[in-house]
Write a structure and sequence with these properties.
Structural class: mainly alpha
Subcellular location: Membrane
Keywords: Membrane, Transmembrane, Transmembrane helix
Protein name: Sugar phosphate transporter domain-containing protein
Strand order of the largest sheet: 1-2
Strand content: under 5%
Shape: globular
InterPro entries: EmrE-like, Sugar_P_trans_dom, TPT_transporter
Number of strands: 2
Membrane topology: Multi-pass membrane protein
Largest sheet: 2 strands, antiparallel
Helix content: over 70%
Number of helices: 13
Length: 335
Amino acid sequence: MKEHQGDLCSRYVKIFIVVSCYWIISIATVFVNKTLLSSDSVKLDAPLFITWFQCVVSFSICFMLSRIGGVPGIFNFPKGSPWSFKVVREVIPLSIMFTLMIATNNMCLKYVGVAFYYIGRSLTTVFNVVFSWILLRQTTSFRCVLCCACIIFGFYLGVDQENLLGSFSLVGTIYGVIGSLMLSLYSIFTKKVLPSVNQEVWLLSYYNNAYSIILFLPLIVMNGEIGVLWNYNNFDSIYFWMQMVMGGVCGFAIGYVTSLQIKVTSPLTHNISGTAKACAQTVLATQWYNESKNALWWTSNLIVLGSSALYARFKQIEMEENSRKPVPEEKRSLV
């Protein structure tokens, strides 16, 4: 009995540490990126270049881990090369979505405040339902659709209140909606691409960052950032490069702690943890940047957060119910 209690206690401690790391790294990543993208200390109006550099850092870390096989005693990094023609052909469509997703996410963060960032990107769940029906022909229960309707209402209310407070950015909100759309597509198509990399999430991250380094180059040119980079005067600043490297490390770390949190808990717990983290992040941002928000603005956040958590719970219940249904005899050989 004592041994069982000891094992249970150690498991809870492990879960607490992992969830705490997820919260700290996730929130730190948002604040670091906000500093890089729009602070007076950096003053570099080249968000796509900053995002591209973060991909370079993530790719470099993945490349080193692939060479040494991972971190001994912590995790093994799968072997693989992103330069195989077969891999490029199968993964590059997903990498295009990945590139557009992280580009629009950072563009959104550049123009909106950290407090509004979650609301600006809150339509991912809605797009998941829409694209699951269009692409996969998967129907959604009425209660989940109702949660999506509440999310849309919360999003509208948040935009309306942000506009009344004078801090609304139409450009940033549009980028947030596009980022939500791309995240939804990326999530759906990831399931199709994972078998091509032996179900290895780390390998897929390695390949995505490798291809994104190339895919970002024409986007940087089209966004007019070459002239900005040419005239930038702080490339010799150690502080600037420390911030850039820190942003890249945070981008890599968030991928690891997200996978780790799902592994030691469950997808549902991860969703609930992410929702609670978003709430804490919003409160922290209003205090950090000394922003004053009215009651309706906070109500919009609560509606989106609560509806997202309920949606995740309802989907979990539906998955459990479906798993208990008997499989017809004629379909058993296919399962």
